[in-house]
TrEMBL record:
Protein name, as recorded: Glutathione hydrolase proenzyme
Keyword Membrane annotated: no
Active site, UniProt feature: T370
One function term, GO molecular function aspect: glutathione hydrolase activity
Hydrolase keyword on record: yes
PANTHER family xref list: GLUTATHIONE HYDROLASE, GLUTATHIONE HYDROLASE PROENZYME
Pathway: Sulfur metabolism; glutathione metabolism
Alphabetized InterPro entries for the sequence: GGT_bact (IPR051792), GGT_lsub (IPR043138), GGT_peptidase (IPR000101), GGT_ssub_C (IPR043137), Ntn_hydrolases_N (IPR029055)
Modification after translation: Cleaved by autocatalysis into a large and a small subunit.
Originating species: Pseudomonas alkylphenolica
Binding sites annotated in the UniProt record for L-glutamate: R98, S388, V389, N390, D412, S441, S442, G462
GO biological process: glutathione biosynthetic process; glutathione catabolic process
Highest taxon, organism lineage: Bacteria
Length: 562
C-alpha cells in the first residue's frame, strides 16, 4: 500500500465521532483531546472527569508531556497557548510563554573572531534561555482554570515518581542526541541506561522532577522561579559556564497577546499565533494567496505547484518579524489584501519561481522537535498549544537536583545579524540576540472557526510547522475526513534553500518528473516528520472528532457526555 494509504488507514484508529444526543447549543456537549502521548491524553481525561475545563486539561497535558517527552518539551522550555473561551461570541487569547534571553546575553555571545560558533548555542547551559512553561501553567490556573494546580499537576507528579515506559519515539530522539546526553553527567543519569539509549519498555523514573512539580503545585510560579528550585538551577547553570541569574528567573513573565486573526472565505476566520511566532503570518498569507488560485480544482501536481509557490513567498517575509516587545512588526503590511494579491498574481501557473529572483530575505535555523496538543471541553472552551525545548532534549543539560532539562532556544536567534552566511541576512536584526528578548519561532497553534464549524490545528516541526499545518487546513477546507488531516503526506518549501523537501511517497515518480520539469529541485527526506494533533467540531451536525498523527504514538479521545 502507498505511504498515503498506510497513513490514512492508521489514522482511522485514532478517530472518534460524537453523535447528536445530548449536545448543548453553546458547546459540543462533551470533551475531546488529541495529544502526542497516551499518558498525556489520560492525564487530561482525569482532570476533565474531575470537573476541570479545557484550560485545566491543558495544564495536565503540558505537565505530563514534561515527564514523558523530555525530548520535546518540559519545565525547562516554553511554548505558545492559543485559547478559546466559550462565550457568545467566542473570545480568543494568546499566551506567549516563549523563553527569554538571560540578562547577560549579548548580540555577539556566539561569535569568536567574527565567526559564529554554533556549538555554543546548541549544547550546554549557554544555549539555554529562561524557561516559560511553568509560568504559563500557573497563569492558566489563575486566570482560566477551575481547579488548583495541586489537582492539575497531580497526574504528572505520579508519572514522574512511578515512571513511564520508553517507546520508539523516545529511543529515536535519544539516539539523535546520544553524544550530547553522554556529555552531561546529570542528563546521562536521568535519560540513559549506563550511557546507552534505554531499551523499549524500560522504566524512566524522575523523582527530582516530581519534587520540582510539587513545588510548582504548592506555591505556583514562585515554586519554580524563586526558592530552592531557582537556586539549584542557577547554581548548576553557572557552575557549567552559563549566564543565568536569580533575577532572570524572578523577572520572567508570560505575555498575553492578541491572536492573529484573518478573515477567510465562507465566513471562516483563521485565529493563529502572532509574533514572536512567524507561523500565523505565514499561514494567513498562504491561505489568502491560495484563495486567488484554483487550487481545489487542480490536479495533484498543479495543486502542489500552487502550494509551494505561496509557501515560497510567505517564508520570504519571515525575516521581517521578531519579538514585538523589542521590534516593530509590519504585520498589517504583510497581510494587506493588495500586497497578497500582488504576490499571488506573480505566480506563474506552470513554472517554479526561482527564489533568487525574489527580493532577498534572511535564512534561519530552528529546531524541529517540539510537541503539540489540542483539547476542547463540553462547553466549547478550547486550547491548541505548541511547546518546545528546541532540539531533542534541548541543550542536553539538566540542572542537578531538579530533574529539569534545559532548552537550547538561544539557537533560534540570528546568531550573526550582520550576515556572514551564504544567503545574506537583510532584516535579521529583528531576531538578533538581546537581553530579555524572545526568539522568533514557527510554532503555529491555530483555529479556524465559522458559525457552523470549529477546527484546531498544530504540530511540532521547526521551520516546517507552517507548511504542515497548511496542508492539514487544506484538507479541512475541502471537507476531507478528519483522520486524513494529520495523515496527509507532507512536502515543504521555505524560500531558502530553494528546494522542495518531501516525505517518502509524497509524490509518485511521474509527479516528481513533472515537478522537476517545472523547475523544482526535489529532496526526499527519507523519513516522515511532524506529529499533528487536530480537533473538529461540526456545530451544525452536532459532531465532535479528534485525530492524532499516525507518525507518532499519540492518542485522540472523545469523552462520554457529561
Amino acid at each position: 500500500m502507498p505511504v498515503a494509504g498506510r497513513l490514512a488507514a492508521l489514522a482511522l484508529g485514532a478517530l472518534f465521532v460524537l453523535g447528536a444526543a445530548g449536545v448543548q447549543a453553546q458547546g459540543p456537549g462533551r470533551a475531546a483531546i488529541a495529544s502526542p502521548h497516551p499518558e498525556a491524553t489520560a492525564a487530561a481525561q482525569q482532570i476533565l472527569e474531575q470537573g476541570g475545563n479545557a484550560f485545566d486539561a491543558a495544564i495536565a497535558v503540558s505537565a505530563a508531556l514534561a515527564v514523558v517527552e523530555p525530548y520535546g518539551s518540559g519545565l525547562g522550555g516554553g511554548g505558545f497557548f492559543l485559547l478559546r473561551e466559550a462565550d457568545s461570541p467566542a473570545r480568543y487569547a494568546f499566551l506567549d510563554a516563549r523563553e527569554r534571553a538571560p540578562g547577560k546575553a549579548t548580540e555577539a555571545m556566539y561569535l569568536k573572531d567574527g565567526k559564529v560558533q554554533p556549538g555554543l548555542s546548541i549544547n550546554g547551559p549557554l544555549a539555554a534561555a529562561i524557561p516559560g512553561l511553568p509560568a504559563a501553567l500557573a497563569d492558566l490556573a489563575a486566570h482560566y482554570g477551575k481547579l488548583p494546580l495541586k489537582n492539575t499537576l497531580a497526574p504528572a507528579i505520579r508519572l514522574a515518581n512511578q515512571g513511564f515506559a520508553v517507546d520508539r519515539m523516545y529511543r529515536d530522539r535519544a539516539t539523535m542526541r546520544l553524544s550530547a546526553l553522554r556529555d552531561d553527567a546529570e542528563s546521562a543519569r536521568l535519560f540513559l541506561t549506563q550511557g546507552e539509549v534505554p531499551a523499549l519498555g524500560a522504566n524512566i523514573r524522575q523523582p527530582e522532577l516530581a519534587i520540582t512539580l510539587e513545588r510548582l503545585a504548592n506555591q505556583g510560579r514562585d515554586g519554580f522561579y524563586t526558592g530552592p528550585t531557582a537556586q539549584a538551577m542557577v547554581q548548576g547553570v553557572q557552575a557549567a559556564g552559563g549566564i543565568w541569574s536569580l533575577e532572570d528567573l524572578a523577572n520572567y513573565r508570560t505575555a498575553k497577546r492578541e491572536p492573529l486573526r484573518y478573515q477567510l472565505a465562507d465566513q471562516r476566520e483563521l485565529i493563529s499565533a502572532p509574533p514572536p511566532s512567524a507561523g500565523g503570518v505565514a499561514l494567513a498569507q498562504s491561505l489568502a494567496m491560495l484563495q486567488r488560485l484554483p487550487w481545489q480544482s487542480a490536479e495533484p501536481v498543479q495543486r502542489s505547484h500552487y502550494v509551494v509557490e505561496v509557501l515560497r513567498r510567505a517564508y520570504r517575509d519571515r525575516g521581517l518579524l521578531g519579538d514585538p516587545d523589542y521590534v516593530a512588526n509590519p504585520v498589517p503590511q504583510l497581510l494587506a489584501r493588495t500586497y497578497l494579491s500582488r504576490l499571488a498574481d506573480g505566480i506563474d501557473a506552470y513554472q517554479a519561481t526561482p527564489s533568487s529572483s525574489l527580493p532577498p530575505a534572511p535564512a534561519w535555523r530552528e529546531g524541529d522537535h517540539t510537541t503539540h496538543f489540542a483539547v476542547i471541553d463540553a462547553d466549547g472552551n478550547a486550547v491548541a498549544a505548541t511547546l518546545s525545548v528546541n532540539l531533542p532534549f534541548g541543550a542536553a543539560f539538566s540542572a542537578p537536583g531538579t530533574g529539569v532539562v534545559l532548552n537550547n532556544e538561544m539557537d533560534d536567534f540570528a546568531a550573526d545579524p550582520r550576515g556572514s552566511n551564504n544567503y545574506g541576512l537583510a532584516g535579521s536584526q529583528a531576531n538578533a540576540v538581546a537581553a530579555g528578548k524572545r526568539p522568533l519561532s514557527s510554532m503555529s497553534p491555530s483555529f479556524i472557526e465559522s458559525p457552523t464549524q470549529f477546527a484546531a490545528f498544530g504540530t511540532p516541526g521547526g521551520s516546517r510547522i507552517p507548511s504542515m499545518v497548511l496542508l492539514s487546513m487544506l484538507g479541512f477546507l475541502e471537507g476531507k475526513p478528519v483522520a486524513s488531516w494529520p495523515a496527509v503526506p507532507r512536502y515543504h518549501h521555505q524560500y531558502l534553500p530553494d528546494v522542495v523537501e518531501h516525505e517518502p511517497g509524497a509524490f509518485t515518480a511521474e509527479q516528481q518528473r513533472d515537478l522537476q520539469a517545472r523547475g523544482y529541485q526535489l529532496k526526499d527526506l527519507r523519513r516522515t516528520y511532524g506529529n499533528q494533533q487536530v480537533l473538529y467540531w461540526d456545530k451544525s451536525r452536532h459532531t465532535l472528532e479528534a485525530a492524532s498523527d499516525p507518525r507518532g504514538v499519540g492518542r485522540a479521545e472523545v469523552l462520554s457526555p457529561r
